[in-house]
Design a protein that fits this description.
Strand content: 15-25%
CATH topology of the largest domain: NADH Oxidase
Helix content: 25-40%
CATH architecture of the largest domain: 3-Layer(aba) Sandwich
Distance between the termini: 17 Å
Strand order of the largest sheet: 1-2-4-3
Number of domains: 2
Structural class: alpha+beta
Largest sheet: 4 strands, antiparallel
CATH class of the largest domain: Alpha Beta
Number of helices: 8
Oligomer: single chain
Number of strands: 6
């Protein structure tokens, strides 16, 4: 499965089987996370066999069940020479790892609030824990939830070029930290794309996620260079 195929296969999953991740899956995730950490100056970490983070009332309210594996996503708020905010870098890297996990046969759910911060998660001085990503073998593959009107994300969608529409079509399938789509994409006559977030919790994180999905769908590298910090010439 390619990342492009994973866009359509991926759905948020909140209930998981007790099946552990395979050694191959763990190694693949560790390798991908290491590259993302280097590329985006983050401190993402795979946590295995921890049944505390999703044991509280908020997790119960969010209908999470049997989540024992997750990826904690943290990083420094400011990085010298980096154009993008921590929120957007987190979102961009989160988009990559959830799709990568899907290609490995795993399910995920991006979680902004309904989890406990546990001692298992390593947070260094000056870092902020932004979110976690539940990961494992889902009880089901999830379902596609009703989507917002496409014009809410791209007001000029109908008159836009085909590559822009393909990018927005992928954005509409993207995960959101709080299941909200508070972003706006526009394109001018020269083909310049502008993406802005609206007010709301995790809206900047979501914008980073949406930028990744837009690039994947449109086939154009529009936002990536501003996101990369340490290895801008390398593919993730």
């Amino acid at each position: 499965m390619t990342l492009e195929e994973a866009v359509f296969a991926r759905h948020s999953v909140r209930r998981y089987c007790s099946t552990p991740l395979t050694q191959e899956q763990v190694e693949e995730l560790h390798a991908r996370i290491a590259k993302l950490n280097e590329n985006f100056a983050l401190h993402m970490q795979l946590v295995l066999n921890d049944d505390v983070a999703f044991s509280g009332r908020l997790a119960h309210y969010g209908s999470f069940r049997n989540v024992k594996n997750y990826i904690a996503v943290a990083g420094q708020k400011a990085v010298a020479g980096c154009e993008s905010s921590l929120d957007e870098r987190v979102g961009y890297a989160t988009a990559d790892i959830v799709l990568w996990a899907q290609t490995l046969g795993l399910n995920t759910c991006v979680v902004g609030l309904t989890f406990k911060k546990t001692p298992t998660i390593e947070i260094d001085d000056g870092e902020k824990l932004e979110l976690v990503i539940a990961i494992g073998q889902g009880e089901t593959q999830g379902v596609q939830h009703p989507m917002k009107p496409v014009t809410r994300i791209a007001p000029d969608y109908d008159s836009a070029p085909d590559w822009f529409k393909k990018g927005i079509d992928c954005v509409m399938l993207a995960p959101s930290a709080l299941n909200q789509f508070k972003a706006r994409f526009t394109v001018d006559e020269s083909g310049r794309v502008m993406a802005k977030h609206r007010l709301g919790y995790f809206s900047k994180v979501d914008l980073g996620i949406f930028k990744y999905f837009f690039e994947l769908g449109s086939g154009k590298e529009i936002f990536r260079k501003s996101m990369l910090t340490l290895r801008s010439s390398d593919d993730v």
